[in-house]
Amino acid sequence: MLPQKTTSKRSQITVEQQFRWMKKVKEAKNLLRKKNTGVCRRTGKTFGELIDHFIVRGDETNMQADADGSLKILGEVGVKKHEKKAADYRGSCTMYCMGNCAGNNGPTAFIMAGEGEEPKTGYDESFLLANGCAPGSCVAMTSRAFMTDKAWVEITPKVSFV
Description:
The protein is α+β, with helices and mostly antiparallel strands. Helices cover 26% and strands 22% of the residues. It folds into two domains: 15-51; 56-159, no CATH class. The chain has helices spanning 15-35, 47-50, 125-130, 149-159, and strands at residues 56-66, 90-100, 105-113, 138-142. Strand 2 (90-100) and strand 3 (105-113) form a beta hairpin. The radius of gyration is 20 Å and the shape is globular. Residues 71-76 and 83-89 have low confidence and may be disordered.
């Protein structure tokens, strides 16, 4: 089993590195549990019971949609690589979601096409909140709607937990 390749500016992680990372996270959590033995005055729970609320993670995913609303087949099991047909328009948007290990959702950043442009009028935090996103959610623009270093720098202060 091989992990999925990433963009050229990010390194590809091996299965062995994934296992090592998970092992190190487990070791760190065990150390924190050992060092933090008190009980929360508000909940009566130990730090070990609450630790997953303090471990925050993010995940990036790309979404594609047909602009005129008709269904298009984007992939087939028997084909290793899929290319866009010339007559087939697919809009693209990258979504970066935050959350904690306890299952609570955090802010979401939407990366849309239009580098150097402002998001369309009305696509602001209040729009995102009204449509179910968490506070801190935002929209950023890049040339092809993919995460870039510039977009990362722009969204990080907005989606970061404090």
